[in-house]
Amino acid sequence: MQLGELGEFGLIELVTQDIAPGAEVIRGIGDDAAVYRVREGDWQLVTTDTLVEEVHFSLEYTTWRDLGWKALAVNISDIAAMGGRPLYALISLCLPVDSDVVTVQELYTGLGEVAQAFGVSLVGGDTVSGLSVVLSITLIGAVEANRAVFRSGANPGDLIIVTGTLGDSAAGLFLLQNADYDAGSEAKRRLKRAHLRPEPRVEAGRLLSATGGVTAMLDVSDGLSSDIAHIGRASQVDSLLWGENIPLSDALRDLASALGRDPLEWALHGGEDYELLFTVTRGQADRVRDTLAASGIRSAVIGEVTAPGRGNRLEYKGRLETLPQGGFNHFRMSGK
Amino acid sequence: MQLGELGEFGLIELVTQDIAPGAEVIRGIGDDAAVYRVREGDWQLVTTDTLVEEVHFSLEYTTWRDLGWKALAVNISDIAAMGGRPLYALISLCLPVDSDVVTVQELYTGLGEVAQAFGVSLVGGDTVSGLSVVLSITLIGAVEANRAVFRSGANPGDLIIVTGTLGDSAAGLFLLQNADYDAGSEAKRRLKRAHLRPEPRVEAGRLLSATGGVTAMLDVSDGLSSDIAHIGRASQVDSLLWGENIPLSDALRDLASALGRDPLEWALHGGEDYELLFTVTRGQADRVRDTLAASGIRSAVIGEVTAPGRGNRLEYKGRLETLPQGGFNHFRMSGK
Question: How far is Cα of residue A248 from the mean position of the Cα atoms in its chain?
Answer without folding.
Answer: 18
